Amino acid sequence: MTNARSRQISKAVIPAAGLGTRFLPATKATPKEMLPVVDKPAIQYVVEEAASAGLTDVLMITGRNKRPLEDHFDRAYELEEQLARKGDQAKLDRVRESSELATMHYVRQGDPKGLGHAVLCAEPHVADQPFAVLLGDDLIDPRDPLLAKMIEIQSELGGSVVALIEVDPALAHLYGCASVRPAEYHGPHGVDQDVVRITDLVEKPAPGEAPSNFAVIGRYVLDPSVFDVLRETEPGKNGEIQLTDALRVLAQRTPGRGGPVHGVIFRGRRYDTGDKGDYLRAIVRLACEREDLGPEFRAWLKEFVGSGELDGPIEPF
């Protein structure tokens, strides 16, 4: 397979087949991707990010009980008609917003064989074009256009590009971690120190054995040669096919054979909705920054924190 350098990227893949067991019982009948973050489901933020980066063709990898995802990004004619009759244009625009973001496609993963397998399910749709993968647990603030930068780097350097963050070394075992060296990539303002060459990747290394404290987060721009590698990748952690293992192979290849793999060290605003605590913090942070909600909500939050209610024993509901 030829290297995808300089080919236009237009397709995004969003794996959304997980069961969301960390949020039970809320996710017993509702996909975790549909849990609201303020007043939009988490998955809408991800599709908005893809669309803002110019990716107007979105493939969602789903599973059983994920029909609400399709409904959310479809037209709701009865609701729209009712809002139109009431003359409520503001709500009508909000309802239509999700169905106008991108051209949406869906395919079921079937067997839950991990992220690598989910990405492999996208091959018939993606074919031989480079593409982006966005994981729904990571929400990236639109003021920090990480994906657009990754697409630009992939266009110039070829191969694949992975988003990285610096984490506490004591927590590195919770992530996929990368060995890196300088890439000497020249951005608009000279050498961009946040663009690195990845030489190795390890999925959730044993405590104390991580190659670095640069952890992979849920944004990727991938060369289509990753599909060939994924087909040959044996199950790794938890018996799943790991995307990290396939990228490790590509990181050791030369241009023209699917390599190299570069990393972008992200230092912007990221909202982690992967567990209950981080999900709640994401809601508070985003609500505080909203022009329509922020002033009143921040005032209440300051009053609540200063009231001393948080100092006493926590009573169960």
TrEMBL record:
<keyword id="KW-0548">Nucleotidyltransferase</keyword>
<dbReference type="GO" id="GO:0003983">
    <property type="term" value="F:UTP:glucose-1-phosphate uridylyltransferase activity"/>
</dbReference>
<dbReference type="GO" id="GO:0006011">
    <property type="term" value="P:UDP-alpha-D-glucose metabolic process"/>
</dbReference>
<protein>
    <recommendedName>
        <fullName>UTP--glucose-1-phosphate uridylyltransferase</fullName>
        <ecNumber>2.7.7.9</ecNumber>
    </recommendedName>
</protein>
<feature type="domain" description="Nucleotidyl transferase">
    <location>
        <begin position="11"/>
        <end position="283"/>
    </location>
</feature>
<dbReference type="InterPro" id="IPR005771">
    <property type="entry name" value="GalU_uridylyltTrfase_bac/arc"/>
</dbReference>
<comment type="similarity">
    <text>Belongs to the UDPGP type 2 family.</text>
</comment>
<dbReference type="Pfam" id="PF00483">
    <property type="entry name" value="NTP_transferase"/>
</dbReference>
<dbReference type="InterPro" id="IPR005835">
    <property type="entry name" value="NTP_transferase_dom"/>
</dbReference>
<keyword id="KW-0808">Transferase</keyword>
<dbReference type="InterPro" id="IPR029044">
    <property type="entry name" value="Nucleotide-diphossugar_trans"/>
</dbReference>
